């Protein structure tokens, strides 16, 4: 495996040239014996979108938290226009003009939009005056918000808009964005990019944290790359390829996913036939007449914006929700609609839910216990109803070896693993069962490039061995990379699957937004905004 | 004069409701910030014992009430150090606090059993208090009752009309998000717990200094638990806590009269009536207004340790 040449790391300490708006020099942050940041230098200039790249665990979040005053560095200084500044708390950072758009939104669900924004505003700004400011900003930047709506009733895109409005109301000179597109549709992301470009043109600095390399190459002309807590390179992303950037992040060339599923090669193994399910809860989506079929050797991708029925579809496939008609769900020809999840597993199906912690794995239980949780119906892990812990540990070890799961200690609690490693464990646990049918929801959400490539390759290899695989994902790049055909889930209805080679990102994106369906009302005001400009 | 009889009944209802309002409002603030303190009963009874002891020693009802509030505050501080500071389990700590409070109250009150004091003085405004029909109800109460009413109004105003109240509610809703914004989660929670303790202690003081007024072991008789239930069924809204407390007080008075009238129902059943009626009414109330989101503070009872 070839190692890509790295640009040499710059020497520590302030560099010559114009004084940066914000600088961080020699930042060291230790947690006990663990060094999260090890002598990190970063300079951010006004009027630039600066990318901060790195895998999960590379130290991006730590550095970001130091800049936002949530953590104090063990060593090193932060400067503002050349002067050393102290950032003991986020309020101090906000006073210096640093704003933050969080990845996992820091919003209180049961408060209204205006209340969430008021939380970090100066005390004299509240009530009517604040609502007016929110409305004005909405008009200026195309960020429409209803101040009195409670947050729990809003979509991910709208929630991010609250974060951005909250940030902009403080007129920041530096905006830190942490994985801002991870929950957005392609259309919503476009709106975001336009706005980021505008903020940059206004002379603000933006620190853009992402591992979506295409976005970084499009938006940023300067990038700092972190690996293992150290700066390993600085480059102009527009002069690099996504592969060379990924290689810098992981320290070696990223395995290219090979052998996209070619199409139908076997008999149909998974079938949904006009599945209709009422919405299980207030904010859930009902499924209407969902029909699909996946054959052995085929990978079917289900695209769609979060909240359009993905969770409900997954639950109906896995057996967490029983279908009213047993014939509506078939695995290898057997009607399983009325069967529970273990009965379906015994028929050779395996399931990887979206949420790693709490759904796919119990965070406080060890990896071997987590291996037991989904595998005891099908693997020889019990005898006379008693657990065979040795066998469970063996199984966990096999998964860990086959999927290169990095962890501390021999059998740690699942919650102590990084997101990417836990996802590799969860996917590996199911794939090692050699299932005939695999249903996997958001396989690489929030997972770094190397782990994502590993998972995708494993899924493709499984399908090459004759399994029928259904992948639900919001990541269109991922679906086009691995799926043989793609269908779109919108508002609980599924479009007809089309071969991935015969459609385009744009066509799928339109279906995701509901444009293929004239009767569907727009779910999201951002689309109206797009047209208004 | 029927008007005077109605007034008499209303006065007794208000008197029975006052300790529940005091303890309930305090617990409401603590729970709104995300801390479930099951030690209300313990803080209340300790407050009752200490307030009576202080009042007897100093001869001052005011100092007694202050002592009661301080006693509740002291226990709450212990609870706050455990659950907010050291991230101990709130349920276990709260239950222990109740047992501790019951024990300590027996110790403090041992020498005062059987003693009697004059009840807390009632307001007397010439002209107003003597108004027929409502003079004594409105202008002739003791300071505890007025404090309880003022607290309901003040806490409502605080929680929904001030920045600090917004911060408190936000912290109760999502401590991870508010911590990320730089809000002082643990400080706010600790102060809320202290406020809850002081209110519970004051509620106990009312029992020992005004309602009975003497000290006897176990005199709170489960009112702390009722206050806890009131907060839940009132869906964490101060005015509903007050309404629930009044309903409970009303049912208490009603069952006393029913027992005296000899209705032929077992006395135990009648004694349980206020509890049943309160829970029933508040359940119906909370059923009627479910509209999505969560009524309870979303972080309630969840331990917070700041992430690195």
What does this 3D model show about the protein?
The complex is a heterodimer of chains A (533) and B (308). Chain A is an alpha/beta fold. Chain A has helices spanning 60-67, 90-95, 113-118, 127-141, 156-168, 186-201, 213-219, 242-250, 310-318, 341-346, 367-375, 389-402, 419-431, 449-464, 476-482, 505-512, 525-532, and strands spanning 22-31, 34-44, 49-53, 75-80, 83-85, 98-101, 174-178, 205-209, 222-227, 230-235, 268-277, 287-295, 299-303, 329-331, 334-335, 349-352, 382-383, 386-387, 437-441, 468-472, 485-490, 493-494, 498-499. Among the domains of chain A are: 49-55 and 90-250, Rossmann fold (3-Layer(aba) Sandwich), CATH 3.40.50; 268-357 and 435-532, P-loop containing nucleotide triphosphate hydrolases (Rossmann fold). Chain A is built from 17 helices and 23 strands. In chain A, strands 13, 16, 19, 20, 21, 22 and 23 form a seven-stranded mixed beta sheet that branches. In chain A, strands 6-7-8-3-9-10 form a six-stranded mixed beta sheet, sandwiched between helices. A four-stranded antiparallel beta sheet of chain A has the order 2-1-4-5, with helices on one face. In chain A, a hairpin with a 2-residue loop joins strand 1 and strand 2 (34-44). Chain A is globular and about 70 Å long. Chain A starts with 21 loop residues before the first strand and ends with a helix. The relative contact order of chain A is 0.12. With 308 residues, chain B is mostly helical. Chain B has a domain at 15-220. Helices cover 71% and strands 0% of the residues of chain B. Chain B has twelve helices and no strands. In chain B, helix 1 packs antiparallel against helix 9 (185-211). The longest helix of chain B is centred in the N-terminal third of the chain and has 31 residues, at 2-32. Chain B starts with a helix and ends in a 20-residue tail after the last helix. The interface between A and B is medium-sized, with 29 and 20 residues.
């Amino acid at each position: 495996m070839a190692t890509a040449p790295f640009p040499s790391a710059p020497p520590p300490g302030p560099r010559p040239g114009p004084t940066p708006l914000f600088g961080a020099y020699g930042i060291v942050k230790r947690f006990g014996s663990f060094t999260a940041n090890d002598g990190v230098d970063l300079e951010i200039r006004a009027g630039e979108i600066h990318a901060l790249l790195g895998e999960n665990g590379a130290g991006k979040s730590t550095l970001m938290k130091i800049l936002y005053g949530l953590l104090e560095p063990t060593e090193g200084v932060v400067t503002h226009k050349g002067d050393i500044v102290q950032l003991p708390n986020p309020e101090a950072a906000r006073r210096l003009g640093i704003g933050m758009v969080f990845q996992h939104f820091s919003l209180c669900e049961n408060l209204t939009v205006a209340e969430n924004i008021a939380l970090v505003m100066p005390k004299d700004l509240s009530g009517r005056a604040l609502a007016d400011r929110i409305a004005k900003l909405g008009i200026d930047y195309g960020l429409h918000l209803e101040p009195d709506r409670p947050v729990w009733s809003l979509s991910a895109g709208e929630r991010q808009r609250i974060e951005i409005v909250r940030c902009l109301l403080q007129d920041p000179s530096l905006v830190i964005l942490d994985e801002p597109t991870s929950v957005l549709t392609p259309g919503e992301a476009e709106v975001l990019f336009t706005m980021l470009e505008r903020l940059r043109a206004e002379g603000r600095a933006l620190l853009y944290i992402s591992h979506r390399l295409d976005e970084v190459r499009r938006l940023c002309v300067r990038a700092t790359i972190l690996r293992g807590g150290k700066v390993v390179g600085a480059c102009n992303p527009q002069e690099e390829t996504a592969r060379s950037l990924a290689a810098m992040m992981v320290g070696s060339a990223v395995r290219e996913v090979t052998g996209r599923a070619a199409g139908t090669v076997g008999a149909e193994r998974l079938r949904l036939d006009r599945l209709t399910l009422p919405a299980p809860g207030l904010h859930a989506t009902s499924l209407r007449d969902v029909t699909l079929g996946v054959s052995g050797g085929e990978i079917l991708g289900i695209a769609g914006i979060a909240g359009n029925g993905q969770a409900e579809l997954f639950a109906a496939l896995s057996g967490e929700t029983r279908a009213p008609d047993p014939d509506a769900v078939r695995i290898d020809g057997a009607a399983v609609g009325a069967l529970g999840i273990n009965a379906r597993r015994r028929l050779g199906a395996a399931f990887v839910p979206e949420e790693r912690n709490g759904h796919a794995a119990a965070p406080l239980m060890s990896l071997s216990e987590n291996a037991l949780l989904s595998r005891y119906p099908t693997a020889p892990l019990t005898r006379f109803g008693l657990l065979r812990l040795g066998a469970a540990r063996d199984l966990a070890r096999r998964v860990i070896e086959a999927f290169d799961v990095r962890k501390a200690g021999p059998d740690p609690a699942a919650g102590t693993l990084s997101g990417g490693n836990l996802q590799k464990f969860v996917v590996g646990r199911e794939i090692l069962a050699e299932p005939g049918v695999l249903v996997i929801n958001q396989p690489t959400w929030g997972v770094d490039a190397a782990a994502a490539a590993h998972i995708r390759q494993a899924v493709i290899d499984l399908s090459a061995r004759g399994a029928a695989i259904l992948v639900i994902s919001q990541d269109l790049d991922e679906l086009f990379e691995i799926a043989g055909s793609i269908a779109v889930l919108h508002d609980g209805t599924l479009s007809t699957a089309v071969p991935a080679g015969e459609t385009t990102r744009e066509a799928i994106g339109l279906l995701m937004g509901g444009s293929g369906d004239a009767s569907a009302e727009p779910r999201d005001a951002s689309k109206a905004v797009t047209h208004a400009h | 004069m029927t008007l005077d009889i109605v007034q008499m009944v209303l006065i007794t209802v208000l008197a029975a409701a006052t300790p529940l309002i005091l303890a309930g409002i305090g617990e409401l603030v603590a729970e709104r910030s995300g801390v479930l303190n099951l030690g209300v009963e313990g803080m209340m009874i300790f407050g009752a014992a200490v307030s009576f002891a202080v009042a007897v020693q100093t001869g001052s009802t005011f100092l007694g009430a202050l002592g009661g509030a301080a006693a509740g505050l002291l226990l709450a501080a212990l609870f706050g150090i455990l659950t907010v500071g050291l991230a101990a389990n709130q349920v276990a700590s709260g239950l222990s606090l109740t047992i501790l409070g019951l024990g300590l109250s027996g110790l403090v009150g041992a020498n005062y059993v059987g003693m009697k004091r004059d009840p807390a003085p009632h307001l007397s405004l010439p002209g107003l208090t003597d108004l027929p029909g409502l003079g004594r109800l409105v202008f002739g109460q003791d300071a505890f009752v007025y404090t309880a009413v003022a607290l309901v109004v003040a806490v409502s105003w605080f929680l929904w009309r001030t920045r600090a109240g917004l911060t408190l509610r936000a912290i109760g809703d999502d401590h991870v998000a508010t911590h990320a914004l730089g809000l002082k989660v643990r400080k706010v929670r600790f102060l809320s717990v202290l406020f809850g303790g002081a209110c519970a202690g004051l509620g106990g003081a009312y029992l020992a200094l005004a309602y009975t007024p003497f000290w006897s072991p176990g005199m709170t008789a489960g009112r702390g638990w009722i206050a806890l239930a009131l907060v839940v069924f009132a869906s964490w809204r101060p005015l509903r806590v007050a309404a629930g407390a009044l309903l409970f007080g009303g049912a208490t008075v009603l069952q006393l009269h029913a027992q005296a009238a000899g209705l032929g129902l077992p006395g135990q059943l009648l004694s349980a009536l206020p509890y049943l009626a309160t829970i029933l009414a508040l359940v119906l109330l909370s059923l009627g207004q479910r509209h999505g989101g969560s009524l309870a503070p979303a972080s309630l009872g969840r331990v917070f340790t700041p992430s690195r």
